[in-house]
Amino acid sequence: MSEVDIELLNCFIDESSDLLIKWESICFELEEAPTEDNWNNLFRVAHNLKGTSRSVGLDAIGAFVHRVEDGITLAKQGKIFVNKEFIQALLKAQSILQTWTQDVKKDPSVVFDPTPFQPYEAILVTGGTGTTEVTAIQATEVKVVEAVVKEAPVPQATAPTVAQPKDKKVKANGAASQSTMDETIRVSARKLDQFIQMVGELSIQQNVLSHQNASSPATGDAAQQSHYQLRKITRDLYEKALSLRMQPVQPIFQRLERTVRDIASSIGKEVKVEVTGGEVELDKTVCEKIIEPLTHMVRNSVDHGLEPSDMRTAAGKPTAGTVSIRAIQESSSVSLIIQDDGRGLDEEKILKKAMERGLVKDSKSLSQSEIFALIFLPGFSTAEKVTDVSGRGVGMDVVMRAIDALKGQVNIGSEKGKGTKFSIKLPTSLSLIDALIVKLSDLDYAVPLDSIEEVIDVVEEAVSSTVEGGEAKRMISLRNRVVPLLRLDSYLKTQRSKGTATSCNKALIVRLGKNSVALQVDEIGEQQQIVVRQLDEKIGNVQGFSGGTILGSGDPGLIVDVEGIARKYFLMFHSKEEAA
Amino acid sequence: MVRTVEKLFGMNKPKKAKVLIVDDESDLLQILEDLLVDYDVIRATNGKEGLKKVLTEKPQAVITDITMPEMTGIEMLMKIRETNSDLPVIILTGFADVKNIRQAWKLGAFDFLDKPFEEEMLLSLVKNAVEFGNPAASHAGIQAAKKRIA
Amino acid sequence: MSTETNVNDDRYLIYRIGDETYGTPLLDVREVVEYQKPKFMPNMESYFSGVINIRGSIVGVVDMRLRFGQTSAVAKMPALLICESDRGSIAAVVDQVEAVVSIPDTEIEKKPPVVAKVEQEYLLGVAKIQGRLITLIDLKSSLTEMKVIQKAA
Q: Is residue A147 part of a domain?
């Protein structure tokens, strides 16, 4: 075996990742339709992978892929019985390769080990050898497999709407693979980030300039004009730069699809997966960080959401459950939806469990969405029995935290007996947002404009004070509603929050589902477009803040997570109210 | 009459695929030819001759050594790609020949056969080449060749 | 410890905190910048002074004078030492940066009898230069591992 140098290795990892994604998606296609085209495509992918590995000296991989190639040839020629098991073997080969490429990325000395494939090795050749005599064991195996295969075409026949977007997806994929070959260039993520960082700095400087221009305007129309132009160009440039980091969600969806299939087969449930919107794009970081929460959610859907098939039949539902995974592009956000047609969330059970755990004391005052929101509390799990699949101590609270970190929002819709729908709304890009500057104890903070429903004047006449549970509670009437009025600084523990009451006559209305709160601030400043900077790990977990930015004045500023504060209020409110 | 007989034969046994083997060692050529019984084998002893036979004989696949007098296998591959982007070319390689492999892959080689080779591997590669051909196995090298020809 | 990588470099950045003189391996300090007033950040430990803007990135600031139990009296020329770790950058406020000197390993007393203020694990040793006692500390690790967020009440 020849030596492989690191640069070549990275080259291989780069190229192979695309190929492995295609490998997987073609396998899914083959499962539905083992056409000659699909076999050719899979052969092409495997063959390219082999050639690429050989050309960097990874001969062990070359030899491994070659054995798979032979299986594909036999399958295409019809010399081998193609069934779910065979496709599983092809997928297993893919996952072994994928695991290795991921491992070797971290540690280049990891040697490729094809032994996990040994149990599958025979499947790739059996059709070629055992033609005349079939032993009893083999016969039963084949029977089981046939039964599975028989069921497979059902979704195709009964649900043409499902098949349609899939076909589109394939075409899109094919077209992409044709054109990307010579029309894209690879740029290291580090270089790209440096570039975006610099454009970000340019944008900050531009903001500083605008800020100064506002306080002491430059003289002359020409100066104003060019200032305006500069502002526009900078903004465009920044948006273009950010778009370079955008990636389609297709690979994520593919992984989720795989997860659903794997779990379904491991717990013996029959599940149909519908995937749409794979072309919708999200920031690379968002893509990387959303995989885990989404995986957990689809896992829950298959494991807990969908009923066992006998229960489904009894309820008059199709035996196979459906999990649909969708992405929808909205103006400044992307919605990811995970929906199942299972049993739905059981409000009573959730409440009971929440009360058992002491998360809620009284159930009467909670609305349906508030009850659903309880599953996101730490330590909550709706599963009656701990299964291997999701009984691993990771609750929905972890999902919530991950989505929070991405400034996303989750909504749950569920109807008993009909199913559950999780919608996750994510910002398309994390980096550039419109924000309102507010003053608290003489310090400027940025509040994302998206989170603010409106800004109101706090008029004393509209404020009513009550004492509940030994604590003073203020409410403000807002048109026909009465919403709790809170001082924002009491949540941020700013220095002067203890005594001095400043003239807080403005409040931000923040809506969370059906509820709103009014957060009182000292002063409302200007509206600015800010570049979100990730705070480093050390200071990044401070409660109440979602990030940092450089304000127009050039000073660092903190971005207040008003939604998080509102959420915390509502969660604490219900338990505190009764605890007192 | 003759045509009918051929047709009958043809129905039972498909026409043999034509494979060109290029090597300056006649021993190796003989071994290859003996192994490729299911194929219609044509020989050449260097790249130049191989190139000529590609044009005149129109083989469905080529197996070539790298080091040969007059014209190397890589040079031949390069020349073939000037006019034919699809012809699958299998390269015979020695131990740890990564550089050559890399270059040949970039030029659109179909596959590589390490010397010494096993019969099974040889037959498997040739079978894949004839079955799928390079259009199926198109990779960056082939794409580039296609572009040049176009 | 971060200094392991710098075994061949015996240069130290010498600075003052209050009445005492400290030294830190030069290569552990990414840069020294002019003091700027940190912007207050709530819910943090008292020695965490806030955040500053270093060329567009937000960097936390730890006041070493408070960290070592001294008062943060306003010095004439306070400076910020920026250390970078894989967890991000962090700045330390010191009273005055004095010099960069080479201190050979042989001149360093690895286990000094008494050194207050600095936790033992961040203490690299004590060196005597021109009659002055210099406490050598692993500033980078100390900053990286320091807890700065106040526990929620």
A: yes
CATH superfamily name and code, C2-145: CheA-289, Domain 4 (2.40.50.180)
**A486: its two tokens:** 């809170």
Provide ipTM, 2 decimals.
0.79
Q: What is the CATH number of the domain that holds B32?
A: 3.40.50.2300
Boundary (domain end) residue, out of A180, A210, A229: A180
Is the four-CA dihedral B69, B70, B76, B78 of positive or negative sign? positive
For residue A260, give the CATH number of its domain. 3.30.565.10
Query: Which ranges of chain C have pLDDT less than 50?
Result: 1-6, 153
| Residue A1 falls inside a structural domain | no
Is position B7 within any domain? no
Q: Please name the amino acid found at residue A417.
A: G
Does B17 score more than 50 pLDDT?
yes
Number of domain units in chain A = 4
Between strands B40-44 and B18-22, the pairing is parallel
Interface-testing mutation among A56, A181, A183, with chain B (most B C-beta atoms within 10 A): A181
| Chain B CB contacts of A62 below 8 Å | 112
In a domain, B9, yes or no: no
- Residues on chain C touching A556 (C-beta within 8 angstroms): 39, 51-53, 58
Please tell me if residue A177 touches chain B, with a CB cutoff of 8 Å.
no
In which band, very low, low, confident or very high, does the pLDDT at A502 lie, cut at 50, 70 and 90? low
Is the pLDDT at A289 greater than 60, yes or no? yes
Count of domains observed in chain B: 1
What pLDDT shows up at residue A10?
80
- Secondary element (H or E) of residue A509: strand A506-512
Q: Is the peptide bond before A34 cis (omega within 30 degrees of 0)?
A: no
C136 vs A78, higher pLDDT: C136
Please report the pLDDT score of residue A487 as a whole number. Answer: 84
Residue range of the domain that includes A308: 247-427
C87/A contact by beta carbon, under 8 A: yes
Closest CA to A1 of B32, B26, B126, B97: B97
pLDDT digits (tens, 9 = 90+) for A398-437: 788 888 878 788 888 888 888 999 999 887 765 667 889 9
Nearest CA distance, C84 vs chain A (angstrom): 11
Domain ranges of chain C: 2-145
Report yes or no: B74 and B104 within 8 Å, Cβ to Cβ: yes
Beta carbons of C51 and A556 less than 8 Å apart = yes
Q: Which of A180, A197, A221 is the last residue of a domain?
A: A180
Give the Cβ contact number of residue A451 at 10 Å. Answer: 24
pLDDT at position A183: 56
> Cβ of A55 and B102 within 8 Å?
yes
Count of alpha carbons within 13 angstroms of residue C67, beta-carbon side: 20
Q: What is the DSSP string of A72-99?
A: HHHHHTT-S---HHHHHHHHHHHHHHHH
CB within 8 Å of C56: residues ≥ 6 apart: A197, A200, A201, A204, A533, A550
Using DSSP's 3-state secondary structure scheme, residue A62 falls into: helix
Crossing angle of the two packed helices B47-57 and B73-83, in degrees rounded to 10: 30
Residue A213: enclosing H or E segment and its boundaries? helix A189-215
